[in-house]
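Whiteboard transcription, Tuesday session. T.W. wrote the structure tokens on the left side:
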């Protein structure tokens, strides 16, 4: 996926999240392990969100692999340490297709 398409998917996801009551804290946070696409807060929970887009749900969800989740977990740990945060959080995925955004909460195993 091109960066431009990725930005559109992330923009659509941010709009969806805001409509659901989330507050967007940051986007595109990098560590040496990887990237977190969106960091958002809802109530007292911080959500670290991986955005995947494709023409259909199956294509997009296949890109949320166990290896990708491991990199996200390491990146989340770095983010929490860097910002000295001790908060409740979860790791989520947003699947973006031409039909809309499907939000999958707490995707870790």
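and on the right, the sequence the group agreed on:
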């Amino acid at each position: 996926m091109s960066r431009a398409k990725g930005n559109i998917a992330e923009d659509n996801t941010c709009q969806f999240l805001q409509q659901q009551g989330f507050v967007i804290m940051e986007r595109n946070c990098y560590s040496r392990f990887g990237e977190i696409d969106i960091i958002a807060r809802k109530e007292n929970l911080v959500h670290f969100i991986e955005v995947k887009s494709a023409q259909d749900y199956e294509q997009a969800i296949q890109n949320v692999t166990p290896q990708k989740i491991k990199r996200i977990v390491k990146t989340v740990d770095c983010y929490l340490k860097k910002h000295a945060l001790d908060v409740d959080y979860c790791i989520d995925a947003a699947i973006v297709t031409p039909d809309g955004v499907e939000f999958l909460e707490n995707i870790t195993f």
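Someone added at the bottom: The CA atoms of residues 95 and 101 lie 6 Å apart.
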